[in-house]
Amino acid sequence: MRLLALEIKRVLKTKRTWILIVASVLLAVFMAYIPITFVTVQKTDESGNYVEITGKDAINYYKSNMVQGVVKPEILRDAVRRYQEVYKTYDSVYGDNIPSEVYYEKLSAYQPYIRGIKEALADRNNGMSPVIADISIDKVGEYYDLLESRLASVIDMEQTGHPAAKEVALSKFAKVQRPYEYYYGAPSDSMEYETFFIFLITILCAVIVAPIFSTEYQTGADDIIRCTKNGKRKLAIIKVASACLIVGMLYLLCGITWIVVTNSLFGWEGTKTSIQLSFSVTTLLPYNVGQLQWANLLGGFLLFLSAICFTLLLSSLAKSNVSALALALLFVLLPFLVYTVMPGQLGDWLQTLLPGAGIGLGNSLLYAMTNFDFLHLGSASFWNTDVMLMLALVKIPLFIMFTIVVYDRKRIR
Amino acid sequence: MKLEVENITKKYKDKTAVDNVSITFTPGVWGLLGANGAGKTTLMRMIAGIMEPTEGKILYDGVPIETLQGEYRRIFGYLPQEFGFYPEFNVQDYLEYMAALKGMPKREAKRKIDELLEQVSLSEVRKKKIVKLSGGMKRRVGIAQALLNDPEVLILDEPTSGLDPGERVRFRNLLSEFAKDRIVVISTHIVSDVEYIANQNAIMKDGKIIENDTTEQLVRLVDGKIWECKIPSSDLVKWERALKLINLRNEADGTTSIRYLSDQAETPDSVSAVPRLEDLYLWLFPQEGEVRL
């Protein structure tokens, strides 16, 4: 324990570490704050002047004006009726084509429901959503009964030729609690900032841990250290443990900061909203928004640790800090690059197998959790999220073991 | 207690750095002498276990050091030629870290660190970052870390490089006290560092140990080959060309006292001198000879 404490103290004593720690915390607060700047309400005041309310005032406006609670069919029917009324008058329901006061007085309170209704009633063959005018009020009453068939058609379209994928998806969706609930809170966009923040903090933490072993080789300090009683395997274990502890605590501190700041700004009530009202109505996870924020943070923690442990392995192999850092950044970014340039199953598998799987934007864990991407192996199909997390559980001990062995056996040949 | 080096060879692609070396180190101070590139550092790194020999083995009390692993490292102290350290450490933090690596209990480590800092005259700078210390001070930090665990086997590679003359004397005294019942190997090309404290000397040349004996025995190799005389200072250039000068000193009377290597007296007034280790070294490595004023 003494050696662990001394190693932690050593890492924390470097100026670079402190700069990166402070930058990470500030980044968490910044990433939580940005979405609030996008919340706006345009309306006319009592004197008839056009005003735009933004930030916290706009949030308060929505909190007091939205239709919230358990989403019963009656609420859904009201939503459709209101939208159809506006459509009849203005031949549109979209912001630029209707007066803003009409939108805010008649539609905005029901806006979270209408997208889901259109999705649930979408054509089962081509996935096209109906236009507002064509939605049958009676059919809306069957909203919850339609979701399974909607999910089945989505999977049929996206995973053609893989019936196992549909089975997996339907069995997962069966656990989703219905009726859904809606409370105004952090919008789904804000979670993309959580994902972006996870991506950035992984890069910052990779910079912290990349020199853990390589700095010894670079400075020649390892010549002396390796001659000490605890200077080989035990030190390797201590170094891995201290690095994971430091960046792990930093990740959790910053992640929790992001959740606390976001929900404090938008309101904690909103965390009770079913994620099916923020993302697709057939999203497979039985979570509310708050649970999804935590799942993204903690699932992301596994993927983050996997990337960090691989960075430590690179550090134990590299001869200099610069090469360790360059390789670490390359491998953190590689899944994102593969996602960008290599679509299809091969790219999907590769992204998932790489050490930085799930760290990125379009290839993120959040994206996987809220989408219907499957990996196929023969006739079996696996939901991307499950594979990512399971592989992370395998990669972490594997990378740690390799790091310890590499450092322990390192001798000049 | 003995450290046996058995038929150790270290080959690189196109060079044999250490060539079938066998030597048994017993308690006492050992000087490992040789010119730069003779293979001393390579041999020391293999003894330290940080470099893999191409052939041969190293045994401590009859057991290969690879088998002993941590047990060997527990009784081992090492100062490499290039003293590497973490740049973020101050002297105290570094020594505490090294003490923990050496498995020393906290209380004992604190006592030993205080004692060593005093001995190597670094108490005043214990809170200073190592990176900001002078070369000599850094070297003394390196010496202190090597001595922390009271090692039974202490390997010092060029320990006095960067030390001023006073520091060298203090280092020799420190080592003389320390060396009782321990194996201390000092690799150096500065003969005066080991001349008065080494009981045994091994001399390396081109990767091989060419001589290995006590200082008294070794210097006998140049018995009758060391001469001293006085020459007119104006003739110095001529004699420098003609003789293998070991040392010279300008005298006040316009003459120069010279010490030279030769099978016989080269001037009528030359007298035979008592040989020293340095004389032997220059006899073995004539290209290393440097006349010091």
Automatic annotation (TrEMBL), chain A:
This is ABC-2 type transporter. GO terms for molecular function: ABC-type transporter activity. Pfam families: ABC2_membrane_2. It comes from the Bacteria. GO terms for cellular component: plasma membrane. It comes from Roseburia inulinivorans DSM 16841. Keywords: Membrane, Transmembrane, Transmembrane helix. The chain crosses the membrane at residues 20-41, 196-215, 236-261, 294-315, 322-342, 387-407. Coiled coil: none annotated. The keyword Transmembrane applies.
